[in-house]
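Open question from group meeting: does this chain pack into something compact, or does most of it stay loose? Before anyone orders reagents, we agreed to write out a predicted structure and look at it together. Recording both the input and the output here so the notebook holds the full record.
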Amino acid sequence: MRKHALIAGVAVVAVAAVGLRVRSQWGRKQVSILPPPASRPAAGIPVPRDYVVDPAVVPEEAAAGPKRIISLAPSVTEIVCALGMRDRLVGRTRHCHWPPGLEPVQTVGVVDESNYGLIKSLQPDLILLTRNSGAMLADLTKLGLRCEAVPHEGLDEVYAAIEKIGGVCGRPQTAAALVAAMRTDIERLRGSAAKLGVPPKRVVVLFGALPVPPQAVFVAGPGLFLSRLVELAGHRNAARDLLKSSQGEIPLERMRVLDPDMILEFRGPSDEETMADVYQAWSQVGDLRAIRNQKVRSIGGGEWLSAGPRIAVELHRFISVLSEPE
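Structure tokens returned:
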């Protein structure tokens, strides 16, 4: 997977100005950037609990588990914290940014660039990875280190990962309660989204931001949790029938064929000028509906690309963005 692939209160902020005409570097044509309409769905739908920041640990399991844990994926780091073991983390990847305050935890690289010597020197009782970690699991095991790999792509795999980590860390009751709470939150949100009565949209979900200049994009396919969130919000992943795997690359010519109603991306805060350049550049690719109607929306930064215990919070974000008035 590429660099944006998964290693793993919401507010849709409306721009106050009536619109801004910005001359883009991509041509003389000026693009009038319209502010997104005020968000209506989130107002009546409570934001679910962030179990990563605010874990609920079964009291009799509070002392259980390994004392020194290394997490080699952002989703795994979030699960460890949601099970109440944040203080047990002694190592993480440089992509592990949630929950806030992880800076003191030693970074050990990323899956394909990890520092084995540093990992061993941290004397971990347990190393947790995702199943797509390649030869790393075997390499670390050969060093005499205890490792466990967990699934991480589909929604059911998120639940399975939580239950497995809960099991190997002596916190099965806490894990079971967390999964039950997440399922309840997601079902409540799904029902709330259905009651909004918003016509379904055809959506493409990118890994990262829409690139400028335009080039092929890496998107969520069937089976990936991001695709499932689109469906739970009452809409359809436009790439579902095109891709045969959970993620893949879509060339520019195929984007013209897909012609989605909305493009969801993961980028940090951006201003009107940035989006003017995005719309101007992509308007040259063809008459894409999402570009013509200025329907490129960000779910948040890269920290939302982790398939972990914040799935319900992320679904709330999807509903908020996808259900905005036309």
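Observations to bring back to the group:
Residues 59-188 form a domain with the Rossmann fold fold (CATH 3.40.50.1980).
Residues 1-31, 37-41 have pLDDT under 50 and may be disordered.
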